[in-house]
Amino acid sequence: MADIHLLLASQSAGRANMLRAAGLSFETSPAHIDEEGLTAALQAEGQSPRNIADALAEAKAIKISSRLPGVIVLGADSVLALDDGVMLAKPDDKDDAKAQLRTMAGRRHRLFSAVVAARDGQAIWRHVDVAKLSMRALSDSFIDAYVEQNWDSIRWTVGCYEIEGAGVQLFDRVEGDPWTIIGLPMLPLLQWLRTIGSAKI
Fold first, then answer.
1. Is there a contact between 132 and 108 (Cβ–Cβ < 8 Å)?
2. What CATH number labels 6-195?
3. How far is residue 133's CA from residue 22's CA, in Å, rounded to a whole number?
4. Is residue 96 among the annotated active site residues?
5. Suppose 121 and one of 66, 74, 136, 152 were both cysteines; which one would form an S-S bond, judging by CB atoms 3.0 to 4.6 Å apart?
6. Whole-prediction pTM value?
């Protein structure tokens, strides 16, 4: 991988699709950090959802970049918090996904999406954006059918939805750009990449 100049430290198809659609040339390599352990430790310290998203993105970027000299590695993560501050994680199984959706139904939540760029094991740029989403009231039968039909695509997502797909049906109001909701604040990222000559568009 010595000739790779840009790498996405994520297994998220949504994030990769956004970069690809923007015309960027990159490779992917999931970082496999202990997200649950790190999140729990940060919560115990009283860190905000925004700071937790930033720290998770940084951990991913630094882990990969420390073993790939000269490569710019992008780490990204999203953290979901209800208006009362309760954070939700990726669902463990279908039952957990259904329970989460019942908790979010009829309520607003905030989605913090962070991206951190690292090179040679050091963070060199970062950005965190937030979107506010209001989920409509959902019946139990709708939630059950939605999860059963979309489980393969939502099982890796915080919030149990892909807004670019069937997940859009869950909401009646969205405040924020679609890229942040999918998981990557694209406009600030592209602006930074252009300043360093890595986005020739």
1. yes
2. 3.90.950.10
3. 25
4. no
5. 66
6. 0.91
